[in-house]
Design goal:
This protein is an alpha+beta fold. Helices cover about 60% and strands about 10% of the residues. It has a six-stranded mixed beta sheet. Strands 7-8 form a two-stranded antiparallel sheet.
Length: about 425
């Protein structure tokens, strides 16, 4: 850095500030945990509990229907007859037999037997948009793809299989990637409109500041509309914190900001600690920060391309600790991620004008490719060593390269 170049100050100036904020987070966390416990006591007062729930997922396993149901305060799984028609996305009333549910089960998500009491008409805006998307596709696979992509509805079992084959679940599960693209689209639309009125009525206003606040408001509506997916909620929280920090001249891209974001989410919703999707999202941002810190002086185009390959590779040990399937098509994931930046707004525009099925044939030709499936399971001990190396990479560049080599080594070690 040249002598005349100024750097932004960090978020915290002392350990005392860090400890004070940590104390606030811990206090808030336990207050919300106490609220959750009171809700649990109400839930467990009797051996059965009647409530309205949203069907987040419905699939067949071992000749039975498995339903993932979300109530206002908890999420649980239950089983039903395999002949039950698909209820995915529907709102139903159920009686839950909850005698064996502990408080830890309650906040993590649990299994409980239940009885279906009634089905409510699908009259929400979300279900109406989902139905509009469905009418634009002949194949249920594509209906599920775009309902998941735009509305954060659960992916069907067939779609999950395709996403795993190509290692592109991160492209469909709403996260910071999508939020960033939506923010760019909103800016692209609003800038000429705002500029027209600004020049005539309020030239003293800051265009970027006002449009950013409008974008944040619209994106918050979208997060609420999609029912707060954990990865999207993390991204939105980090965006708001990032803007707050940037507006005050502080350093934006830092590990402390990521930690603060995660602590805020856990303090406000303790159950998010058990969200695998949220942890995947946090890990992705962490490795982006590692790459940004280590290779920020690269040419912008080279940086953009290498970043996608870096994220794909360094996330492999974490992903394969949870999911052990691997196909050669997963190697296309970085390229598909880069193409997605163009694909996403095009598909959004096509669906707005009821032309969503226009590219289905092209996508189908990709999805119909067959390949051999390999099993690569990363053991617990390797994951711990890998995560320790990743943490050391925050400070030492040697561990940046070691982390990368360890990630690549899983193909040779655990096949």
């Amino acid at each position: 850095m040249s002598a005349c170049q100024l750097s932004r100050p960090p978020l915290f100036n002392s350990n005392k500030e860090r400890l004070v904020l940590l104390g606030v987070f811990i206090f808030t966390f336990f207050i919300h945990l106490l609220f959750d416990y009171n809700k649990y006591l109400e839930f467990s007062k009797f051996d059965d509990y009647i409530c309205d729930v949203q069907v987040q997922n419905h699939y067949i396993k071992n000749s039975r229907s498995v339903l993932k149901l979300k109530a206002n305060d908890f999420t649980f799984y239950t089983k039903a007859s395999a002949n039950l028609r698909s209820l995915q996305g529907a709102k139903i009333s159920v009686r839950i037999f909850n005698s064996d549910v502990t408080f830890l089960d309650y906040i993590k998500g649990f299994y409980a037997p239940s009885h279906l009491l009634g089905l409510y008409p699908e009259n929400s805006y979300r279900s109406k948009i989902a139905n509009k998307i469905n009418t634009q596709h002949d194949d249920e696979l594509f209906s599920s793809l775009f309902n998941t992509l735009f509305l954060a509805l659960p992916a069907s079992s067939d779609l999950r299989e395709v996403l795993t084959t190509f290692s592109i679940s991160h492209l469909v599960a709403l996260s910071g990637f999508h939020l960033g693209l939506l923010a760019l689209i909103i800016h692209f639309i609003l800038v000429p409109l705002y500029k027209f009125f600004q020049q005539r009525f309020f030239p003293w206003r800051s265009r970027n500041v006002d449009i950013t606040y409008i974008s944040i408001a619209l994106l918050f509506v979208y997060v609420v509309f999609t029912d707060f997916p954990p990865s999207l909620l993390r991204a939105f929280t980090m965006m708001v914190i990032g803007w707050f920090i940037y507006d005050r001249g502080l350093e934006v891209f830092s590990f402390e900001n990521l930690i603060v974001t995660v602590l805020i989410l856990f303090a406000l919703s303790p159950s998010l600690i058990f969200s695998i999707g949220l942890w995947f999202s946090v890990a992705g941002v962490f490795y982006i920060l590692i790459f940004l810190k280590s290779f920020q002086n690269l040419n912008k185009i080279i940086f953009f391309v290498l970043l996608h390959f870096w994220i794909f590779i360094v996330m492999l040990p974490i992903i394969h600790y949870v999911f052990d399937t691997f196909t050669v098509f997963q190697l296309l994931s970085p390229l598909l991620s880069m193409l997605f930046i163009i694909f996403y707004p095009i598909e959004m525009l096509l669906h707005i004008f009821s032309l969503g099925g226009l590219l289905d044939t092209t996508i189908s030709s990709l999805f119909s490719l067959e390949t051999k499936v390999y099993l690569i399971g990363v053991p617990y001990w390797f994951l711990i060593i890998y995560l320790l190396s990743s943490l050391a990479a925050i400070r030492y560049k040697f561990f940046v390269y070691l982390t990368f080599l360890m990630a690549l080594s899983i193909f040779a070690i655990f096949k």
